[in-house]
Amino acid sequence: MPYWYYDKKDLQNTPSFRDGISNETENRYRKEGARFIIDTGSKMDLGYNTVATGVVYFHRFYMFHSFKTFPRYITACCCLFLAGKVEETPKKCKDIIKVAKPLLTDQKFSTFGEDPKEEVMTLERILLQTIKFDLQVEHPYGYLLKYAKCLKGDRAKLQKMVQMAWTFVNDSLCTTLCLQWEPEVIAVALMFLAGKLSKFEVVDWNGRTPKHNAWWDMFVEDITMDLLEDICHQVLDLYSPQTQQSGGDSPSETSTSKPPKNEKKPPSITPPASVSPVAAVATKPVVTPVKNGGETKTEPLKMEPLRFSYPSYPGMPYAPVYSAPPPGVVPHTVAAHVPPHSVPPLSVPPHSVPPHSVPPHSVPPPHTVPPHSVPPPHTVPPPHTVPPHSVPPPHTVPPHSVPPPHTVPPVVPSLTYREPPPNHTRFGTPVSVPPPNYYPPLPARGPLPPRPLPPGPPPPRPYYPPP
């Protein structure tokens, strides 16, 4: 089974990077593809497991291929199409394309070609070969609920913390965390982050032993604070307001237009901490600077029936637009940023050592004998090549080289087995076989004798009532 976890050094040396795409542009492409899968899956009422599986397929695919070779939106539709079949929530390919078309501009949808369905179906084979038919994917959602049931404390605060952690798991799909750490580690880290933001401190938990210094030691051992903080920073960087380029086709050309001098920074919005997690919250539109011809777009936030607001966090201005499963609205102004400090991963990727690194001719076969080597003493030439009178005299051959007389096989003219000619008289006197009509025919049967009837009326038949 392939190993799908990579070091940050490998994540910065992808096929797209070697193809001339910068790491910042590749991260933006990954984010846009993941957001596209989430939006399309939400419109088709697909479960969060299906959407998350499609996003993981998407990230794994571009660890082996470049964004220049395969446009990201076709790959996203293909990943969602395959994930629907794997998670037993299948959708037709034409329905996925029909829902995805309004989410894309005409320029982006033109990458699908004249027959979008054929493009997606053809790419499915390449996707299956790329992910090596490893279709089963685990997500942090199940571990998140499992770990939360073991914690003790105020139930209202615990529920608030779990819902916030669930939102962070949804947003972490836009990063490459699924290529760095196992789902158990991601669940622990995002629960730690949600507990800090919701001011829920875990004091006690079920199954606690003296050797457990923190609650996560019971589930995953040897997790350091540096590792937890690194994962938390990668998720929190999604909510930092940064100027982004408008998404183009794969690959996109670098915009040469400069931002206007009088451009203002987006206002920092901190929702109140007293808002109920299930109440509908009306927020002001967020001014998002979009670097597209030097214009600034104002994107109002959509209202959802279920909202969750987070307390203020230094350096994290975001609006309460996240909801519990199925995946809700993902913020428009997100930008994945890999922190400068690196955390050692779990292991080395499988493709780091090429299978053909040792030439086939470097190791001679075990049966190879140099031409000048002396044959073993028991070696005897074939009998048909040595005439009986060609045996050398005794004084010309060393005594140990003469084979014993019983080891010389007799001369056989041919080893081919031939069927002997038919001999009907080999059993002596031929056996007389009677003809088919040896037994005389049976006489014709006459009429059967009359069957005697029992005296008296027939016995009554038993009655069985219907069930």
Automatic annotation (TrEMBL):
Q: Where is this region: Disordered?
A: 242-277, 342-467
Give residue spans, biased composition: Pro residues: 342-412, 432-467
- InterPro entries with a match to the protein in the record: Cyclin-like_dom, Cyclin-like_sf, Cyclin/Ssn8, Cyclin_N
Q: Give the UniProt subcellular location, in the record's own words.
A: Nucleus
Give me the stretches of Low complexity compositional bias: 250-259
Q: Which SUPFAM superfamilies match?
A: Cyclin-like
Single GO molecular function: cyclin-dependent protein serine/threonine kinase regulator activity
- Record key words, sorted: Cell cycle, Cell division, Cyclin, Mitosis, Nucleus, Transcription, Transcription regulation
Any keyword Transcription? yes
Alphabetical GO biological process terms:
cell division; regulation of transcription by RNA polymerase II
Taking every annotated instance into account, which residue ranges of this chain make up the domain Cyclin-like?
A: 35-129, 142-237
Q: Does the keyword Cell cycle apply?
A: yes
Its cellular-component GO annotations read:
nucleus
Q: Which family does it belong to?
A: Belongs to the cyclin family.
Q: Function, please?
A: Regulatory subunit of cyclin-dependent kinases that mediates activation of target kinases. Plays a role in transcriptional regulation via its role in regulating the phosphorylation of the C-terminal domain (CTD) of the large subunit of RNA polymerase II (POLR2A).
* Record-linked PANTHER family: CYCLIN
Query: Which protein are we looking at?
Result: Cyclin-K
Native source organism of the sequence: Parnassius mnemosyne
